[in-house]
Amino acid sequence: MTDDERAASHGLDETCRMREGAKIISPEKLECGEYVWVGENAVLDASGGLSIGSHTSIGLGVYIWSHTSQLTNLTLQNFSGSELIERRPTKIGSGVFIAGPSVILAGVTIGDKCVIAPLTVVNKDIPPYSVVSGNPSRVVKTINEDYIAAERGRVLGKAQATL
């Protein structure tokens, strides 16, 4: 099965791609934009609501959560349908790059055009145009459209030089 076929089999837009081993929990609660790429073994938990903007890449082994069940264990009430399972919508903007393996916790909002560095645990909202890293995550750099244009020119300039 191709990446395009796999994405379609999970109900994603025809422009999306999904690698082997990726999983969507509660796909009926997933809102996904166009041109989204989901890497191998990523887990997208939409049980509490998950929205992913267009042109976003989710790297290999990334876990995105929209629920937590820790209280069910602590209270010895770990059973299916427990009222102690907390569900919170998780939102990922457009033009976001999430390097794997990283973890996005339930209820977090990641703004548009952010870069999440490898091995990052995102435990709080991230403003647009941020580069974040670490556990817990922290903004290590703020970018803007000028930065993006300069990087685009740098990469395309290299490509043109090799032709």
From TrEMBL:
Record the organism.
Ramlibacter lithotrophicus
Which keywords are on file for this protein?
A: Acyltransferase, Transferase
CDD domains in UniProt: LbH_MAT_like (cd04647)
Acyltransferase recorded as keyword: yes
**InterPro entries on file:** Hexapep (IPR001451), Hexapeptide_acetyltransf (IPR051159), Trimer_LpxA-like_sf (IPR011004)
Pfam families, alphabetized: Hexapep
UniProt keyword Glycosyltransferase present: no
Q: Lineage, please?
A: Bacteria, Pseudomonadati, Pseudomonadota, Betaproteobacteria, Burkholderiales
For this chain, the family text in UniProt reads: Belongs to the transferase hexapeptide repeat family.
According to the UniProt entry, its GO molecular function terms are: O-acyltransferase activity
Give the top-rank taxon of the lineage listed in the UniProt record for this protein. Bacteria
GO CC list: cytosol
Which protein is depicted? Acyltransferase
